[in-house]
Each structure stands twice: as C-alpha cells, then as structure tokens.
Design brief:
- 15% of the residues lie in helices and 37% in strands.
- The protein has 340 residues and is an alpha+beta fold.
- It folds into 2 domains: 177 residues, Glutaredoxin (3-Layer(aba) Sandwich); 151 residues, Sandwich (Jelly Rolls).
- It starts with a strand and ends with a strand.
Length: 340
Amino acid sequence: MNIIPAFPAPDFGVIKWTLIDNKEINDVMISLKDLKGKVILLDCWTYTCIFCLRTIPIIKRLKEKYSKYGLVVISAHSYEYEFAKVNENIIRAIKKYDLNEIPIGFDIENKLWKMYGNMYWPKHILIDRNGFVRYEHPGYGNIDEFEEAVIELLEENGNKISEEKDVHNPIDEIYKIYGLQFPEIAPEICVGYMRLKKFGNKHNIKREQDNNCVDDGNHQENQVYLKGNWFWGPEYIRVGRFDSMKDSSITMRYKYARRVNAIIGVSDNEKGIVNVKIDGGFVNNVNGGKDLIVDKNATSHAEITWPFIYNLYKTDEKEAHEIEIIPKTDNIVFYTFVFG
C-alpha cells in the first residue's frame, strides 16, 4: 500500500450499511466514532469490476488472519453502471461472492467513494486507531502489498503479531473463473457511447436510436463490430425494436486472453439467451466458461438472468480468437467485454 500524509478519515455514516449473517439481511450502524481504537480496512468496490472481484479473496484472508488483533474490514459498494445502484443486485452479488459477515455499505450515489478521493475501482484504505487515513492502495494488488501495512498499524495499537506473512495470494475460485491480468491481455471494452467513441463497422452508428448495422466480416484486433439492429445507449447496446434480434450479433477479435467474460443484462425481468461462438463455431464443454451451457445439440449458450459478469470461454494458455455473441431473445443488453 502507498503511505500518504495522514488526514482525518471521512465518516461512514453518509451511506446505508448492511450485514448478511446466516442469510439474514440486517441494517447496521457503522461510524468512525464507534470504531475508534480499531484499525480499519475500507474496501471500495463495485461488483462489475473484475479487479475488485480478484481482490475479494485477499480481503477475506486479511480479515481471517487479523480480526483477532482488532482489524475491522468494511466494504463500501459504489456503482459504475446504473444497474449497480439497485439494492437487489448488490445483495445478490454479496451472496454470490460469500461476503457474509463483512458490513457492506450501499454507496448508491458514490458519496463515500468521492469523499475518499476515489477515481476508479478498487481502492483500499487503511485507517489507524485514531481515525486517520494512513495508507491507500488504488487498483488491484497482491496480498504482500497489503499485509505489511496492516501489521504495522496493528502493532502501533500494542499487538504482537505472531502470524507469518502470506507468500502467495489465497487460492480461490474467482481466479479460476475470471482469470488474471498479464502482459498483452486484450483491453476491457465498454460499448456504451460514454466510453466507446465508435465501433469497428465502416458506417456510423448513431446514439440514442436503433441502428441497422452492417458487418462486412473484415475485423481488426480488439475492436467491437455489430450486425443487425441495435440501440446505442450511454452504457450499453440493446437489441433494437425493429426486426427484433434477427441476424444480430456482437463480434470481437481479441488478442490475447485465457478467459473471456462479458457484462450482460436484460431489459425486462425475463430470462435472456445468447448463443456464443468462437472462430465461427460453437464452444465445446472443455473450453466453455463457468456460465456457458453446451446443450444436447452441441449449441453453446448462456442464460442471462441479471446484469452480471458472465464467464463464457476459457483456455489454459493465452490465445487469440474471435468471439461472437448472438442474442436469441429480444431483451438482451450488452455492456462490456472483460478479459482475464
């Protein structure tokens, strides 16, 4: 973590806090005053950020090792997409990643996120026993980048730490599912017009309206191409009203990745379906991701039930491929390609 000039920590009472314990959901009061004398690790995250997800096992491990010495771990969930303001989605993510027994702040207006000077996700902040911010760590990091600072502040509080430092990150299913960062990895691409200025298609695709998109099949690396009818919104593309999802698809030729993930949702409360192809063919069971289903006809598809990072394709080595996502229902909303 980065040592910074100490300053008084903003209080946590500006947002609502929830604790899920034994599947019961209860509101809790979290204030800096009540936690005085404790060392606090504040995890600022959002469930659609792959770097945030990769840090969850580290946060859990630090809590497991050091809570008996007075370390308090709290987790403030802010939003990157509008759907991450919805309480039901946040609670579903908390349960999905087994964040029970860690108080979760519902920072649905990004108030606390801004008060701590955050600019992106994740950010981890260490607050000492006197309520001063002493360390911060923006972005993803390994456990060895956190542990020494945690121990220092706990020892300042009169503790004698007997645990040995972890040499490696804890083993967790999250790494297996979503993959890890490496040099040359394909970039994360958000398709809404607030992030993406243009698609790879030769013709212009207009904002806030349905577009009949033509894909001539000539694809450049790490660009997104649309085919069929799509509405282009600020955070997403959505299956257009005209011709429904007939002949519509999203294609990207990526270089490189071991995992292909996508943030996808639905425009209503009904289940959505997308077919997934790699290099023009359906995906087999060996390379199918955690959220991919290969049916009896060897057709690979994913069932979309909520806005979430779906793991679609996996390989043992870093590889370059072309992925095509084909909506089979007219309620598909596509947000982002994310690679690991």
